[in-house]
Amino acid sequence: MRLAVAFMAAAMPVAMNAQLTNIIKKAKDVVSSTSPAAGTVVDVVGNVLGTKKVTAKSLEGTWVYSQPCVAFESEDALSNLAGSAAQSKIEAKLKQGLEKAGIKAGQMSITFNADKTFSTKVGTKTVKGTYEVNGPDLTLTFKQPAKSVKTNVKISLTTLQMAMKADKMLAIVNAIAAKASAYSAQMGTVSSILSQYKSLYVGMKLEKK
Fold first, then answer.
1. Cα–Cα distance measured from residue 47 to residue 90, given in angstroms and rounded to the nearest whole number
2. CA-CA distance, 139 to 159, in Å (whole number)?
3. Burial class of residue 103, CB neighbours in 10 A (0-12, 13-18, 19+)
4. Does this model's pTM top 0.90?
5. Sequence-distant (≥ 6) Cβ neighbours of residue 202 within 8 angstroms
6. 117 strand-pairing partners
7. Could you state, in order of their start, the residue ranges of all structural domains in the chain?
8. pLDDT tens, position by position, 119-151
9. Contact 119, 111 (CB under 8 A)
10. Class of CATH domain 44-208
C-alpha cells in the first residue's frame, strides 16, 4: 500500500506537467488562430479606435489594403455581445461592398509622402491630395472631387487601421473608387444596423509595403 502511494505521489508531478504542457499548447493554438495572419478572426473578436498620437513620419510610405474593419469607441462598447454580433455581419457586408467597388486585398494602396501629400490607387484610378494629422486623427483632403474626410488612425507594427463613421467611409470610397455606387448599394442593406450602434465605426486595414 505504501509503495502504491509513493508511486502515485511520484507520478503526480509528471501528470501535472503533462496537463500544464497541454494547456500551454492549447493557449498558443488559440493565439495563433486569432493572429492577423488568420484573417478576419481578429476583426470578429473586435477592435477599438486608436487613442495614441500618430505622426506624419509614422505614416510615410505605401500601405496596401488587406481587409475591412469594424471598430468601437471603447472596450466597454466592444464588450456588448449584441454589438459584436453586429460587427461580424457588418464586416462581411463591408468586405463585399468594397470588393464590388474594386477595393480588394492587394489591389488598393495609399502612399503618404513627407511633404504632406498622398495618393491612392485603385485599379487604374489614381487620386491625389494632402493630409494632416492631429493626435489619433488623420484628415485626407482630396483634390478631385474636392472634399476633406477625417478618420481615426491606429498603427500597430506594420498594420494601419483607418476607421470612421459610415458616411465618411462612403465619401472616401466615392473619391477613390470607379465603382462607388456598387459599394453604396451593398452597404444600404445594413444601414439600419449602423444607425443602432452610435459607437460603431467602419474602415480598412492596410499593411506596410
1. 13
2. 18
3. buried
4. no
5. 68, 69, 70, 71, 90, 94, 163, 164, 165, 166, 169, 194
6. 130
7. 2-33, 44-208
8. 999 999 999 999 999 999 999 999 987 899 999
9. yes
10. mainly beta
